[in-house]
Amino acid sequence: MAEILPASKALEPALALLRAGEVVAIPTETVYGLAGDATDGAAVARIYEAKGRPRFNPLIAHVSDMEMAGRIGRFDPLSLKLAETFWPGPLTLVVPLRADAGIHPLVTAGLDTIALRMPRGFGSRLIAALGAPLAAPSANTSGRISGTTASAVASDLGDRISLVVDDGPTPVGLESTIVKVENGKVRLLRPGGVAAEEIEAAIGQKLERGAKGIEAPGMMLSHYAPNAGMRLAVEDVRPGEALLAFGPDRVRGAANAVATLNLSPAGDLREAATNLFSFMQELDRDGAATIAVEPIPTEGLGEAINDRLARAAAPRGADRE
Ligand code: TXA
Ligand code: MG
To answer: Which EC number applies (predicted)?
Structure first.
């Protein structure tokens, strides 16, 4: 079983494991990540193995500073502006990969671009101490919900990894927003912890939407899959259903729900994002066959919340990550 260590005591043990080519679950501001040295092919292979990923999807490489980022990727002026505005933080930038960056090709699944992110807090200190970028997908078994607490990560992956670093519940609660600059335009590849409107305000232009083919290979529909079925934007709760509520007002039949958790009684989307994965997990553990979800506004972080809910509700295919 994995050891859970508080972040204040975990830097040296985590570093020792990473230097030995092992993987470690670490906190980031978005979700917990399953981290390995991005320059070490065996370590990256262990990430896929521990997650049970059915195929190699490109991973995000996490950096501690702009200098490290610049040694790995080529930053056009717009990507640089985005990095300066939102890093460290929940934004991932896809940029052309430098051939001499030392990144193992398993990280990018052979693409000539790389997804880069500069996290806050423990992750950043760990990367700086290692002196190398960390490849880290969300710390969950393929097809399960991303872990937002150390205990969720330990109960999911604990028999396959030796250390989970605990820094409490992740403040953002869902994954980073992923964008890519193409011909002076910024394309949204995955909505996430930075709202599209914030990015548009920073760059003074609208985001391009609608991913193109391989460019978002990790965007498979069944990515976030609880065991329960999901019914979204419900107008009522049916017998036997659990309810994932939002805001002060309840839908019809709510009193009969077998269990209810409210993402944000006040209707705050940031709070709802923080609670989303852990509340889905909790209702799922209770064993209801179906989780009914109240309508959630689509503006701001609501876009990413609705995106994750749609994935959780999608038919279960082989194409999981
Ligand atoms: O918040 C997050 O982003 C978390 C924390 C741990 O940093 N990480 C995370 O990683 O969500 P993961 O592996 O679950 O998702 C990475 C996404 C995938 O959808 C993948 O397809 C996409 O990034 N991606 C990676 N490299 C890419 C590339 N070169 N071009 C396009 N998409 C890429
Ligand atoms: Mg994931």
So the answer is: 2.7.7.87
